[in-house]
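User: My collaborator sent over this chain with a note saying "see what the structure looks like." That's all I know about it. Can you take a look?
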Amino acid sequence: MKFHRRHSFLAIVLLVCAAGWAQTTSGPQPIQGATPAPSIAEEDKAFAESLAGMTLEQAKAAIAQADQRQITSGVAQALRERGNAVAPKQPGEAVVFALKALAVADRLNDPLLTAKLLLSEGLAHRAAGDNEAALAAYDQSASIYEVSKTSPIDLAQIFGARAIVRMRLGDLDGAVEDGDKALTGYQQMGDQVGMARTLNNLGNAELALAHFREAREDFEQGLKLARAQKQRQGEAYLLTNIGNTYLQQDNYALATDYCLQAVKIKEELGNQDDLVTTLVSLARIYKHGGKDAEAMQTMQRAWSLAQESNRPRMMALVLSLWGEFEEDDKHYDVALTKLNQGIAYTRQTADRLDESEMLEQIAEVELLMQHYDDAIRDAKNVAELAGQMGVDLDAANAATTLAKAELGLGHQEEARSAFESSIAIIERMRDNVAGGDQARSDFFALRTDVYKSLAAMDASEGRWNDSLLLSEREKGRALLDMLTQGKASVSTELSKEERAEEKALRARLSARELDRSSAVLVPSPDEAHLATLDAQLAAARNAIAHFRERMYAAHPDLSRQRGDAPLIASVAQTEPLLPSASAALLEYEVTAAATYLFVVTRGPDGPVLHGYTLPIAAPELHTRVLRFQTALTQHDPGFAPLGRELYRILLAPAHTDLLGKTSLIVIPSGDLWHLPFQALQGSSRRYLIDDATLSYAPSLSILLTSVGQPRSAPPSHKLLAIGDPAGDLPEAADEVKALARLYGSGVRSYIGSSASKENFEANVSSYDIVHLATHGVFDDRNPMYSHILLASSGKQSQMIELDAAEIAEMKIPARLVVLSACQTAEGKYQAGEGLIGLSWSFLAAGSQSAVASQWRVASSSTTGLMIAFHRGLQQHMSPAAALRHAELTIEQDPRYRHPFYWAGFVLLGG
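Assistant: Without extra context I'll predict from the sequence alone. Here is the result:
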């Protein structure tokens, strides 16, 4: 499995680093002027020693019967210190010592002492791998501290500790929230060591959320503080974590540099145990940077150190990575051996989360080896562990592995049931995944394989309607999740009663889905019980659907803003997208085994669906699309055969359906988002654009929502045109001037220094058409940082970025946004989301459609194309028809006949 498909291993490394520094500095940090802790009296030590030799129940009884004079805070402190001493090697014993100390605090009726001891209990539970118990202890401690108005340092410690556990349990928003509280407390006390440690943990949470800039800012600030306080160990942790941010972004040179700095510090400190975690990160960097020899050498060193330390978790950590490396290299026997060795060590630590994740790896390797019975057994064990811990992610992954193994044995119904269980868990998690837009997007993008697998099953059985609807479930929500989740102010859109009703309905649905997914994974499930659960689940889903329909009717803008547009439930619902018999909808689903084409046309009794299995899988499709697009962008005269072959594969099977169709809406999948369909040629060698208008959309559900959504009153002015803010695009300036002349009244245009971000924001909501002729910059690592460049008011020749995330938060009710710039449509494709980039951010902000370029366009031809496009709009053509008119106009110019000049612009949306 490749790095970008799996985050759990990196999460383990981050948590080891976070917990390591936190545990070595878990007590109050030295603060100038602080009063030292009082010494413990000898009689207190003696009583604590006697309690230490008893069982927990015996100790509780002895504490309850002891003379009140024997019950002192010194006894509790002595027990706490005994627990701290044994925690690294015997975390279970440390829990017992903490509970004995808490029994003393109960008799003293000392809330603050109880809160302090609950922190120790939580640390012991965390060391023992029981993070739920740790969280419960921290919650109790925090509630006492918050009521007692204790010192900021106490609050900072408990919030900092709880942040680590929340991260381990997957509650990343909670981890950030607690981290911010801890940081505030340490800042109030001037504790720079605590601040540095907290910034390290905050950065880990941000990194897990794929917030790379925020993570790096936290790490860099923490690194500065750690260096100022000469916290060399903390400095090494922070350097490792900064390296991990660059690893996540495939910047192997910088990732290597930071990790090597961390290795050097840890070597100087002589902490061999700590060195293992950084070496693991470094090995991973080498491996994914293509340096296999260095990766294996570094991993072998980490393994030697882990063996010397004799710490099971360190050895399990290295073996997990080793197994993953061997799996990537298709050495499945070796991978399985390493992972089985690793899980044996994991079981010694009693960390069920690590055990579940490694057992999940084992099941995946067994699946790849076609050891289906073994994979089924281990996947079911993962499901059982995950159910006990309430870890939905592992349960979903286990169900997917189980489904594929059952499919390998030809057990169709068992496979279908497991796939459906996995999807139910994924969709429940989707509503609750921590971290906001990017995290929701990444979470869903990494888990669409199960949707594709089940859709492929349906297609292979001729169930094309079910297959299409499943494809829509995969695609339909994720784009708006990415761009707009949470943008609507629910407090203003929904009433208090409506919010309460929604919360109750979601809770009921979550409970029914959990009941169903748990029941189906047990050996020999009761069919009658499953039927009852299915009926209950259907009722809960229907209740949510009915609620949403009522809310969309009462609040028309809500579905577009909230990112949970209703998915189509039948092909019949697509009728509004087929205004005539000359229209057709083409939706693709690309999988690792084949590509599926769904064609919807208008029949005498409504929409008609035909499905086709195309014999081209994702890897070959990627190669063919890349070759074709490269030929176009490099003006290669040999592009035509490549395009004709793609037409033969992707469109020719539906030849009968497409006869006479002059309006096509394409719903791409995977690499098809990078394919300019308009430049494909059939057997007649006519371009597709010669015979039909084309537009693109992320899903039929989203397009249908946009088309059917009641719109507010149109903006009062015609055109807002902004261009050439840096003064380096004279053709763009001429383009804006020409458009101003073309439209006449109702136009506002800005060129040069007046083409500012401030002027854009002040005017964008008031115009029917927004035209931007400026540089567009695409960020390949994080699409939401893609941006256009605008002038900065009052600052001569200084540019300022307007990124996709900012745009998506705006209200832009334009009928059309035109991005006449370089690479503005080019977006990072992630399964389930379609193309994510600048163009989609305008749609999320409320625009009906957008025109953008798929590659770096030539300014000489672009101006002519844009003028022709706007002339078409003035002649009351639809945006799709106007774009076709413009492309055909440019194609007829002898200078610009090559598709490079005209095929790059696409219409996105309705």
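A starting point for your reply to your collaborator: The first helix runs from residue 8 to 24.
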